[in-house]
Amino acid sequence: MLSTFVNHELKAFWRSKNTGKSVAIRVVMAVLILYFLVNALFLGVFLDKILEAVFPLDDVLVSFCGILLLYFFFDLLMRMQLQELPTLRVQPYLHLPIKRNTLVKYLAATSLLSAFNIWPFVFFLPFIFKVVIADSGVAALAFIISIAGLTVFNNYLALFIKRKSNLNGWVFLASGAVLVLINLGDFMWHLYSIRDISYAFFGRMVTQPLLALVPVGMCVGVYYLNFVYLKRNLYLEDLGSGKVSAYKNSTEYPVLNRFGKVGDLVAIEIKLILRNKRSRSALVMCLFFMFYGLIFYLNPTAYGEWSKVFVGMFMTGIFIINYGQFMFSWQASHFDGILVSKIKFTDFIKAKYLLFTIVSTLAFLLTTPYVYFGWRVLLIHFIMYVWNLGVNTTIILFFANRNQRRMDLSKGASFNWEGVGATQFLVSLPLLLTPFVIYMPFKFLGYADAGLVILLVVGVLGILLRPWFTKKLEEDFNTKKFGLAEGFRNK
Q1: How far is the C-alpha of 213 from the C-alpha of 215, rounded, in Å?
Q2: Does the pLDDT at position 54 exceed 60?
Q3: N or C, where is the chain less crowded by C-beta within 10 Å?
Q4: In degrees, to the nearest 5, what angle opens at C-alpha 358 toward C-alphas 355 and 362?
């Protein structure tokens, strides 16, 4: 059956109407992967020299044992963001006399054909053959087995998390937050040392090679977890079989109930964000950019106060910029349904405003720890938060009526330029430049506080005038909705 599945997938690929585009993308990806593999091999060959330079007080083998666990922590984080789920159109096979186990085993096997599974060997094997094998061939074999076990463990754990995230987006966010907190506990809060924990295990492997069976056991366990999950959910009706049948409010977010239909629309869009790869990637990137201020605030002498304005606008408005630049492309696949539904476009616009307000408010709350660098930093962040809600939200929604490029939500964000065009470049200019057009003249004249007050006043006026802007945006949408629908139909 393996050869049959491969044959069918090859035929599906070459007979697709987008074959030329797909081949070009795969060629570019292959070149990039080869480039990264060559770099990994170069680093692996000189890893002993690099470790001696970075950790001059430690033995090179001690340093090597200390970085292994760190590598696999970051590897898992990268896999969760970039590794694609293996796919197979299983529906045509479900009514045939083919065992579920065969289909699941094929999906499990194809997931191993990932560049992420090659890099650890390219990176670590040169060091093992240069340093470890000279002292003990058995220890070298144990290291190779343990690296293989952890690589496969990360492979299946990342896939399991992503599969669970397709049903519940909070699983992805919670898993990413746990990994980030684990690393922060070491590098920022110094509660423990991942290097010491790594050495405690891999250091003993030199004298106790049987410890290599621990990663192998972990690998087998997570493979079995994936196998059982896929087998149980192979049929579409199985995905919802365990859900409670009792009626729930359509929002399922009690805080949104008070907003009525607008709250329902926001809840639906939150589900869209959490359940699809590219929109979820946009949200995850926003969380990572919450650390953006450290680049500027840790070196205050190199940047002036203008940086506080930029950082405050960027961190509290990154979701508006990153997610909002693709309005209404996120709804491209069901845009025709929106046009013929009973949804009032006024409520649709209000839902976008409410969504931006909720996420930007959360982003502002996440930036409050920057008060450590002074109360003025927090004050400027608040001013730019108000600016984002009053001005940038309206600018984004204005340009949304002019973005006719559709997007496939199932595709990841890495190396994916679908839906990106000149509109996104035009959107970025007023978003990034408008506050400085207002603020910088006052700054040069020595009245920086006056510039900040003007930004705050304009932001507040923008919030107060939202009903008027909503009406104008609706009128603008009615003149362009058919052009948008036609653009979104083009695949």
Answers
A1: 6
A2: yes
A3: C
A4: 140
- Determine the pLDDT at residue 121: 94
Polymer length in residues for the chain: 491
Inter-CA distances, 386 with 146, 278, 315, 463, Å: 52, 27, 12, 8
Task: State whether 235 and 316 are in the same domain.
Answer: no
Distant-in-sequence, close-in-space partners of 486: CB < 8 Å, separation ≥ 6? 404
Q: One-letter amino acid identity for 421?
A: G
| Closest by Cα among 490, 475, 466 to 335 | 490
Domain boundary among 209, 240, 271: 240
DSSP state of 331: G
CB burial class (10 A; 0-12, 13-18, 19+) of residue 214?
middle
Identify the domain boundary among 212, 240, 268. 240
Distance CA 376, CA 180 (A): 28
Tokens of 461: 């006026």
pTM: 0.60
Query: 470 lies in which domain range?
Result: 260-489
Tokens linked to 321: 């910029």
Residue 326 host element (H or E): none
The candidate with the shortest Cα–Cα distance to 353, out of 288, 420, 263, is 263
pLDDT, tens digit (0-9, with 9 covering 90-100), for 118-169: 999 999 999 999 999 988 889 999 999 999 999 999 999 998 988 887 666 6
